[in-house]
């Protein structure tokens, strides 16, 4: 049985870690380099570092911060934000990232997924999908959730897999920051549709929410931010309880 992964997410804006609700009302959560080291030491399986305003501000991810974070951690480290070319990914991997996460750029030019997986291997390529449920249908949103599209989540997920991505990071905008639990129904459908790992994001509030997304949502990994940043859930306590419930985790 593959172990389930616990993944803290560092959303970066202006060089600081931030967290909001439903993608807005951001508040400061600390120094990303300090937080990254803490999480690596405290038992996180992976880290995700998202430069959340890079696409909107039409600039590249901050390479100096990626270098600093990479020096501090010994676990897989995914970087996203403002990535739109093979050259961008080459730069980030040289800075110490293990994987990259693309979102808006993949929707605008889907062949980018093919190019990256062919050049660097599918294990390097995570496609992040921010989606919102509107009138019973899930629709993909771009640029940090600010731009709605008519692209349907499940159709896009199939295309992502077919183009060679190694993982899908699915964030429910309806659940993000609400601490009311993950979008398990959508996650379970995604897991049935595709054969690549699904990372659940958006809605973690309690330890049981993580257990539910692994059992009911069939997620391969669960990503969260504020519950970790503000000390509401300790990763070791979370993993011990998951193990107690029969979920395979790395302790």
Automatic annotation (TrEMBL):
Family: Belongs to the HisA/HisF family.
Keywords: Amino-acid biosynthesis, Cytoplasm, Histidine biosynthesis, Lyase
Location of this chain's protein in the cell: Cytoplasm
Name of the protein in its database record: Imidazole glycerol phosphate synthase subunit HisF
A Gene Ontology BP annotation from the UniProt entry: L-histidine biosynthetic process
Molecular-function GO term, any one: lyase activity
Active-site residues, as the UniProt record annotates them: 11, 130
Enzyme Commission number: 4.3.2.10
Catalytic reactions of this protein: 5-[(5-phospho-1-deoxy-D-ribulos-1-ylimino)methylamino]-1-(5-phospho-beta-D-ribosyl)imidazole-4-carboxamide + L-glutamine = D-erythro-1-(imidazol-4-yl)glycerol 3-phosphate + 5-amino-1-(5-phospho-beta-D-ribosyl)imidazole-4-carboxamide + L-glutamate + H(+)
Description of how the protein assembles with itself and partners: Heterodimer of HisH and HisF.
Highest rank taxon of the organism: Bacteria
A Pfam family assignment: His_biosynth
One GO cellular component term noted in the UniProt record for this chain: cytoplasm
Gene that this sequence comes from: hisF
NCBIfam families: hisF
Pathway: Amino-acid biosynthesis; L-histidine biosynthesis; L-histidine from 5-phospho-alpha-D-ribose 1-diphosphate: step 5/9
Broad class of enzyme this protein falls into: lyase
Organism: Winogradskyella luteola
Biological role: IGPS catalyzes the conversion of PRFAR and glutamine to IGP, AICAR and glutamate. The HisF subunit catalyzes the cyclization activity that produces IGP and AICAR from PRFAR using the ammonia provided by the HisH subunit.
